[in-house]
Amino acid sequence: MIKKIWKIIKEWVYVFLFFIVTSCFFFQTFKIPSGSMIPTLLVGDFLIVNKFCYGYSNNSFRIGSFTFPLPEIKGRLFGKHLPERGDVVVFRNEKDNDVNYIKRIIGMPGDTVDIINGVVHINEKPVELKECGEYSVMDRGNYEIYKKYMEVLPNGREHVIIKKYEFGKADLDNVGPFVVPEGHYFMMGDNRDCSADSRVMEQVGFVPLKNIMGRPIFLFFSSSCSLFEILKWPFSIRFERIFQPIE
After folding, report:
1. What pLDDT digit, counting tens, does each position of 41-59 carry?
2. In terms of Cα–Cα distance, which of 77, 62, 58, 56 is closest to 23?
3. Active site residue 80
4. 236 is an active site residue
5. For residue range 206-245, what is the model confidence (pLDDT) as tens digits?
C-alpha cells in the first residue's frame, strides 16, 4: 500500500516538475481577463505564450505573479530576436500590483509617440487608418456598437483596432508626446478607448525589455463564461477561435 502511494506521489511530482520546466523555458498558458485587446483577444481566451522567442530575462521565469529568485540576467539570454513593432506581448507590470499585462508594441526605443485626436503619431507621422465596419461589444450587460479600423504601422504591420467614441472625444485621445527611452517599449491595447496602457504613465508607462515575458502565438481555448458556470459550458465555447493565430 505504501509503495503504491509513494508511486502516485512520484508521478505527480514528475508532472509538476514537467509543468514548471515547460512553463519557465518554453510555453506558458495565459487567460485574457479584460477587454483591452478586443477584437484581437476576447475575455475568456486562453493563449499559448512562446517564452523563448526573445530570449530569457529574469521575468521569463515567472508563473502567475511568482518570479523564481535567480541571479540577475543582463540583457536577454539566448536572445537572437528583439520584439518588433506590432508584436503582441505579455509583460510584467510592476506599477499595477505586479500583475501580468498583454498589449501591442506601438513605440520602439527612441521613438516619439504622440496621440492627437485619437490618431497615433510616431516620430511626427500619423499612422494610416482604414475604416472597416462596426464591431459589437458587450459592455456592462449591454451590447454597444464600436467603430472598427485597420491600423497600419510604419513597418507595414496591420492590425484591427476599435473605437468606442469619436476620434478626439475619449479621455486618452490627446496625450503625449512620449519619448520612449532606450531599452523600453510603448504599449497600447487594440480596444483604444478601454485600455490602460503606456498612455497612462502612473499605471503602465514605458515597459522595459527585461519585463517582457514572451509572445502569444495562438489560442488553444475560448469561452464566454467562467470556469464555474458549468451548465453554460456547452453553449459558451467559441469553437471558431480555437487554434487561431495571434497577430
Report:
1. 999 999 999 988 898 888 8
2. 62
3. no
4. no
5. 999 999 999 999 999 898 877 667 677 778 889 899 999 9
The C-alpha atoms of residue 148 and residue 158 are separated, in whole angstroms, by 13
CA gap 38, 41 in Å, rounded: 5
Give the active site residue among 36, 60, 198, 223.
Answer: 36
Dist CA 132 CA 143 (whole Å): 19
Which residue type is seen at 223? S
Contact 40, 160 (CB under 8 A): yes
Going by C-alpha positions, the residue among 193, 73, 83, 184 that lies closest to residue 137 is: 193
pTM above 0.70, yes or no: yes
Rounded CA gap, 61 and 13, in Å? 19
* Burial of 156 (C-beta count, 10 Å sphere; 0-12/13-18/19+): exposed
Per the CB < 8 A criterion, the answer to whether 125 and 154 are in contact is yes
Alpha-carbon distance of 139 to 137, in angstroms, equals: 6
Q: Among residues 51, 103, 163, 210, which one is catalytic?
A: 103
Rounded Cα distance between 206 and 93, Å, is 10
